[in-house]
Amino acid sequence: MEMEAAADLAAGAEEGAKGDDAAGRLTYEIFSLLEAKFLFGRGHVAAGPPRAPAAGGRVCVLSIDGGARASDGLLAGAALVRLEAALRRRAGSPAARLPDFFDVAAGSGAGGVLAALLFARGPRGRPLYAAEDALAFLLRRVRRGGGGWPARRAVGLLGRRRGGAGSAFGPALGELTLRDTLRPVLVPCYDLGTRAPFLFSRADAAESPAHDFRLRDVCAATCAGGAAVEVVSVDGGTRIRAVGGGAALGNPTAAAITHVLNNRREFPAAAAVGDLLVMSIGTGEAAERGEVARIAAEGVSDMVDQAVAMAFGHSRTTNYIRIQVTAAVTSRFLLQY
User: Fold this and answer.
1) In this structure, what are the phi and psi dihedrals at residue 10, rounded to the nearest 5 degrees?
2) pLDDT tens digit string along 176-188?
3) Ranges of residues in the chain whose predicted pLDDT is under 50
4) Of the listed 63, 108, 167, 301, which one is catalytic?
5) Which of 208, 209, 165, 153 lies closest to 189, judged by CA?
6) Nearest 5 degrees, angle CA 77-CA 83-CA 89?
7) Confidence (pTM)
8) Could you confirm whether 32 is annotated as catalytic?
């Protein structure tokens, strides 16, 4: 019930004007649930300068699935627009943004692009973009490139001549690096050089320039399609031959939870899953994928969801929510754009 409600919510797009009355009611119900249980249930913190997790408080985690295409992030982007608008109303501040309420953001593929855009540090230490801006960025890519990124197939070649593998994301993110995020950000890819998953992490970037990457390159790495792209750390010491995050970790929720529980420096009070509040947003089922590819991608994502739910045990109904949608809803949403 909660997942289908969230799907209809997301299908409402930026301002919820689209959809019938039933979808509108479901939209209201699901976001009321998220506001009450997941964001304000631990005590509201007014919007303002970026906050650190309260001592002894629960850590709020946002996890966003994603594929290689811009269109794979539209449902999540629309859901986040609605959530941020609800939070602004509840906080009584038009300046409230998602980083004011979430302590960690993890994203894969297009979800990684959303995480980078939403949690990048802008002027005066506030978020660079609102959720509406991030969704608009994805929509522009869909309308111009049929769901992909500009020159995605040639990003490994043409991109290097025009400013690096992340040139498609350069206008939005400039020279910002992982260290320039308001909260810990986690974005996966698969490194062909080591034949292993690689997790871009602000915590690692803070420890060594060899693990600090420009956000535009992080986005290019996690969204890489069939052809690998090469990204280089800020100091030039680390090179990653990346293919997309979906190939490594389409659903990054478990990685985000593990990161928090093992990151005593930033989250000293998080000793067990009961100390976390986790919201995980899926991309929706992709009806246009081949059957084998669809089963593989959705199967891995669902297995992560099941494992996380089991880890939470009795607290999974209060500390963990997964929002996923059916292929029919996904298709209906994409047709609107």
Assistant:
1) -60, -35
2) 999 999 999 999 9
3) 1-26, 41-56, 151-163, 287, 292
4) 108
5) 165
6) 140
7) 0.80
8) no
